[in-house]
Automatic annotation (TrEMBL):
Entry keywords, A to Z: Lyase, Metal-binding, Zinc
Database matches in Gene3D superfamilies: 6-pyruvoyl tetrahydropterin synthase/QueD (3.30.479.10)
GO terms assigned for molecular function: 6-carboxytetrahydropterin synthase activity; metal ion binding
Stated name of the protein: 6-carboxy-5,6,7,8-tetrahydropterin synthase
Short name of one Pfam family: PTPS
Organism: Myroides phaeus
EC number(s) from the headed UniProt entry: 4.1.2.50
The protein's annotated pathway: Purine metabolism; 7-cyano-7-deazaguanine biosynthesis
Uppermost EC category: lyase
InterPro entries per the UniProt record, alphabetical: 6-PTP_synth/QueD (IPR007115), 6-PTP_synth/QueD_sf (IPR038418)
Length: 137
């Protein structure tokens, strides 16, 4: 029997959307207010989904306490109250758009999720803007 279990988390981060090699005019045209050089913050809401076979002995697809600890250690401690552009090495040369943040989160969690389970990350940048990523397979 296959089921999906999910864990919600959140973090607050600052970012700026821009490309160093583009002019101020082009960054402003493409990224608008998200290109504010003084940065701006979002209250990100994260939902991590793990899909797999139900273990009939434990009644678990995956221990949600273990998933919660993993998200705290790998994501919240790295992203919460940080400037993504300046403090998180993955975004030194990668625009911290919602799409790229979701992919980075997936890549950071994937090694710790059992191989036989599928991982999907859903990230809300605002209440109305959200993205999801489930890897390339
Ligand atoms: N494809 C993407 N487009 C945009 C991203 C992104 O990450 N991926 N990011 C932004 C801004 O950073 C931000 O999310 C925009 O916020 P805003 O337009 O203010 O959205 P709200 O939901 O808060 O407000 P509305 O009034 O509903 O627009 C822009 N684009």
């Amino acid at each position: 029997m296959k089921l999906r279990v999910s864990r919600k988390a959140h973090f607050n981060s600052a970012h700026r959307l821009f490309r160093k090699e583009w002019s101020d005019e082009k960054n402003q045209r493409i990224f608008g207010k998200c290109n504010n050089p003084n940065y701006h913050g979002h209250n990100y809401e994260l939902i991590v989904h793990v899909t797999g076979e139900l273990d009939l002995e434990t009644g678990f697809v995956m221990d949600l306490k273990e998933l919660s600890d993993l998200i705290k250690r790998e994501i919240e401690e790295t992203f919460d109250h940080k400037n993504l552009n300046l403090d998180v090495p993955e975004f030194a040369d990668l625009i911290p758009s919602a799409e790229n943040i979701a992919v980075v989160i997936w890549q950071k969690l994937r090694p710790f999720i059992p191989q036989d389970k599928a991982l999907e990350v859903e990230l809300y940048e605002t209440a109305r803007n959200f993205v999801s990523y489930k890897g390339e397979n």
